[in-house]
Amino acid sequence: MFGNSKDLLGIRDLPVSEIQEILDRTAEMKKIVMSQNRKTTDLAGRTVNILFYENSTRTRLSFEMGAKMMSSVACNISASGSSVTKKENLIDTARTIDVMQTDILIMRHGLSGAPHLVAKNVNAAVINGGDGTHEHPTQALLDAYTIIEKKGDLKGLKVVIVGDIAHSRVARSNIWLLTKMGAKVSICAPKTLIPSGIEQMGVTVYNDVEVALKDADVVMGLRIQLERQKGGYFPDLVEYAKEFGINEKRLKLAKSDAIVLHPGPVNREVEITSFVYDCDQSVIDEQVTNGVAIRMAIMKKAIER
Amino acid sequence: MNSILIKNGHVIDPANNIDKKLDIYVEDGKIKEVGENLSKGDTVVDAKGKVVVPGLIDMHCHLREPGQEYKEDIESGSNSAAVGGFTSIACMPNTTPVIDNGSVVNFIKTRPARVNVYPIGAITKGQKGERLSLMAEMKKEGIVAVSEDGDTVANSGIMRNALQYASNFNLPVIAHCEDDTLGSDGIMNEGYLSTILGLKGINKAVEENIIARDILIAENDKQSIHIAHVTTKGGVELIRQAKARGVAVTCETCPQYFSLTEDAVDGFNTYAKMNPPLRTKEDVEAVKIGLKDGTIDAIATDHAPHHINDKNCEMAFANNGMVGFETAFGLGVTNLVNEGHLTLNELIEKMSYTPAAILRLDKGTLGVGKDADITIVDTECKWTVDIEKFVSKAKNSPLDGFKLTGKAAMTIVGGKVVMEDGALV
Ligand SMILES: [Zn+2]
C-alpha cells in the first residue's frame, strides 16, 4: 500500500511518511544488491508484469532485476507500436494481464494518466514507471535516495534542475518530492520549456543557467530531446548547449561539493558535457545502482495489502 | 380541437414584459389567450407554485445523427431536450456526413423528434475550410444558421466570404473560435493544473485570437456574427468592447462555463474534457459578469453526448463534451439566479427569447398567436444529478452527484404535452 492506495502513481499524492519509509527500506535492499548473494524471498510466489509502451533500458531492467532478485515470477510484455498515435484498448490489455493473476503491474506509457486508467480497472498494484509528461515517481525516489547518500538529508539543500522542464515527468516528480522533504528547488530552462504556472509548485524559476547554478548543492540535468528542436522550442541543440548546457566552468558556480545527477540517457555535450558526466562530482552511475534497490523496496511495499 | 388551459402559474414572458400570475389558453398548437381567471379548454394544467415560461431554446447542440447514432440520435437527443425543458433545439453540422447540403438537412427535418429540431449547416463543404457549403439550398430545406462548430474556419478570407454570403440568405453565422496554430490540440485549460497533470494545455489566446479576428472581419464589412461558447475573461471583454463600438456581435456561453472550473479535470477525469476547455475561477466570474451586463446574450448547452467507450479511455483519446440538456436549467437557477447574478426573468430570456432572436425564429415568447411552445418550471425543486438516469443515450457528465435547484416540470411543444414530471409523454 502507498498511503491509502494500492498503486504508486505519483509523488503528488504520496504522504511524506510513505516517502520516508520507502527511502529507509531502500538501504536494506541496497545491501542485498551490493552483496554476493543477491537473493531474497520477499516476492516468492508472486507475479510481476512489466508493461512498457515506451523504450527504456534503466527503468525496465532495474524493475526486472529487482523482481527476480526477490524471487518473483517476472515477465516483460512487449507493447508494440506507438501508444500515442494508435488507439488501442488499454483497459482490455491491462485486464488480460490482470486476470492472469498479476500481483504487481509496472507500467510505462506515453500518455499522461494512462496508469491511472489502468489502476482503476485492475486488481494488481500498479506502479507508474513513467507516464507522458506527468510523473515518474520511482525515478524521483531513487534520486532522493542518491542525494541523501551523499548529503545526509534533503532539508535545506539547494537543488537546481536544468533542462526540458515542460516535457519532463522526472522534473515534476522530483519537484513534488524534494519540496515535500524540505529542499529548496530551482528550475532553469529557456522560457519555451518552462510550463505555465509551475512556480505554484514552490520552485524558483531561472532562465539564466549561470545565475541558477550559484551555490547549488545538487545539480540535476534533464535530457533534451531532439524533437523539441523540431517543435520550435529552441533553434538547435548547439545553441541550447551554449546557453543552457552544464559544463566544467558552469559547474564551478555551484558549491565545491555539489553533486551532479541525470536520469539518463545522457546526450553528452548537450545538456551536460562529458567532463561533467565523468567528473568526481557526478553520481549518475550511483543513481542507476540505487534504481534497482529503490524499486525492490517499492515492489515489496506493493504486495503489503 | 385540442386545447389546454394552464392555470394558476406565475407567467414570465420577457419579450412582453410579463412577470405575474396569469392563465394561458392554448388551442390548435397556438397561444390563444393570456389573462386572468380563464376557464375553458379540454385539459386543465394546474401550474400553482410553478413558473410558466416560453419553451426553452437551445441554439447549440450535437445530436450525432446521421453517422454516430451509437452516441445519440435525433429521437433520443430530442427526448433528452424535452426532459430539460427545451422545446426547440438547433443541432450542429459536424455529423457524418456533414450537414453541408439540402439532402442532409431534409433527412434531419424528417426524422422523428419530440421537440422542434433546427439543423445548422456547415460553413464550408465537409467542414474542410475550403469551399463554401450550399447555403441557399440548405436554407430552403430549413437550416437556421451556419457554423463550422468543432472546427474554426482557419482561412480568414474564407471566413470573410462566409459572413457576406450567408447574409444574402439571412443566415446567422456562428463562430467556433479556436486558433489551431496556437495549440488547439491540448486537452485542458493551460495553467498550473495542466502542468502538474502533464496534460497539454489550451491557452486562452487560442480562443481569444479567433474571437478578435471574427469580430474585426464582421466589423470591417458591417456583417453580424455570433460567437459560440465563450469561456474566457478576455473573450468576454473583446465582445464587450466590440458591442460598445456598435459591432453586430452576439454570443453565448454554456452552463458548464459558469458552473465548473478546470479543477473538475483533476484526477484525469475524462468527463470534464471538453472544447473549449473548462477554465479558471476568474473566467467563471467574468462569464457571470458578462451574463449580467448583457455582453453574453444567450445560454446554450453544447450538449455533446458520447458513448462510454469514447470517455472510458486515456485523456488524450477521450472525446470532448458533456451531456447538456438535462442539467442546463438547474445550473442556471442554482448558479445564476440563486447566487444573485441574474433574475429568473433574465435567465429565461437568455434561454428562450434571445437565442430565438439570434436564429431569427418567431419563437421564445408567450404572445397571443405564437406557437404554443411552453415550459413549466419548478424553481424550488431540489434534486441530485444522477447521470445513470439521463434520458440521453449518453451518460457522460462531470456533474454526477451535484445538488441542483430548479427543474422543468412540463414541456409543451406546439400545444402538445411532451414531458411531464421528468417522464416523456
Ligand atoms: Zn464548438
Number of strands of chain A: 9
As for the CATH topology of the largest domain in chain B, it is TIM Barrel
CATH class of the largest domain in chain B: Alpha Beta
CATH superfamily of the largest domain in chain B: Metal-dependent hydrolases
SSE string of chain A, helices as H and strands as E: HEHEHEHEHEHEEHEHHHEHH
Radius of gyration of chain B, in angstroms, nearest whole number: 20 Å
Work out the strand percent of chain B. 15-25%
Total count of domains of chain A: 2
What is the oligomer described by this structure? Answer: heterodimer
| Helix proportion range of chain B | 25-40%
Mean of the pLDDT scores of chain A? 95
Q: Could you say which structural class the secondary elements and strand pairing of chain B correspond to?
A: alpha/beta
Topology diagram in text:
The complex is a heterodimer of chains A (305) and B (425).
Chain A: H1 16-34, E1 47-52, H2 58-69, E2 73-78, H3 90-99, E3 104-109, H4 114-121, E4 125-131, H5 137-151, E5 158-162, H6 169-180, E6 184-188, E7 204-206, H7 209-212, E8 218-221, H8 226-230, H9 237-244, H10 248-251, E9 259-261, H11 274-278, H12 284-302
Parallel strand pairs in A: 1-2, 1-3, 3-4, 5-6, 5-8, 6-7, 8-9
Chain B: E1 3-13, E2 18-27, E3 30-35, E4 43-46, E5 51-54, E6 56-61, H1 74-83, E7 86-91, H2 102-109, E8 116-119, H3 135-141, E9 146-147, H4 156-168, E10 173-175, E11 188-189, H5 192-197, E12 201-202, H6 204-221, E13 224-227, H7 233-245, E14 248-253, H8 255-259, H9 281-292, E15 298-299, H10 325-337, H11 344-351, H12 353-358, E16 374-384, E17 403-413, E18 416-420, E19 423-424
Parallel strand pairs in B: 1-4, 1-5, 6-7, 7-8, 9-10, 10-13, 11-12, 13-14, 14-15
Antiparallel strand pairs in B: 1-2, 2-3, 5-16, 16-17, 17-18, 18-19
The complex binds zinc ion.
